[in-house]
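Instructor's aside before we start: the two examples that follow are unrelated to each other. I chose them only because their records fit on one page, so don't look for a connection. First example below.
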Amino acid sequence: QVQLVESGGGLVQPGGSLRLSCAASGLTFSRYVVSWYRQAPGKARELVATIDSAGSNTNNDGSVKGRFTISRDNAKNMASLQMNSLEPWDTAMYYCKAAVAWNKYWGQGTQVTVSS
C-alpha cells in the first residue's frame, strides 16, 4: 500500500522558516516526480515546487522562488520543502504528491500557518 506522510507544519511568525517532510512507502520512490502543492481556505490547490526523480532538476512557482527549496533523498524515500521568509499568504495546507506516468499519489497534508 502506497503512503505519503507529510510532517513539519505548524504555526510560525512572518519571516520565519519551516521545513516540511514527505515520507514515502510502498512505492519505488526514485522513479517518481515529487511535487508540493498548497491549498488555502476557499482557494484552489496550487503547485508550489517540483523535483524530478533523480533530484537534478527543480522548479518553483514564481510566488515562492528564492524562498522555498525542494529537495529529496531517494535513499531515505523522503522529500522536503524548506520554506524561508514565510509570509501570511503562505498559510495553507501543504500536500506532497508523487507521480509517474498515470500513477499519482497524495499525502494527507500538513497545515502551515503564518501569523504574528
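Example two begins here.
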Amino acid sequence: QVHLVESGGGLVQPGGSLRLSCAASGFSFSSYHMSWLRQAPGKGLEWVSTIRRDGSTTYADSVKGRFTISKNNAKNTLYLEMNSLKAEDTAVYYCEKVGAERGQGTQVTVSS
C-alpha cells in the first residue's frame, strides 16, 4: 500500500525559507515521477513542481528560481526547498506519485 507523508511545514515570515519532506513507502520510489502540489485557502489545487525518475525537474512559473525539488532514492524521500517565501505561497502542500496517490499535506503559512 502506498503511503506518502509530508512534513516540514509551519509559519514563516515573508522572505524566509522552509524545507518540506515527503516520506514514501509501498512502491518503488525511484521508478516514478513525483510532484509537489499546493492548495491555497479558497482556491483549487495548483501544480508546483515535478521531478522525473531520471532526476530532471520542472517548475511552475510562480515558484521558478525560488523553490527546488529534489529526492533521495536511498531514503525514499522527496524534498521541496522553498526560499524567498511570499504571502501568496501560503497553502497546504502535497506530494504526489504522479497520476496516482497523494499525501495528506502539510500547512505552510507565510505571514509577518
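The first strand starts at residue 3 and ends at 7.
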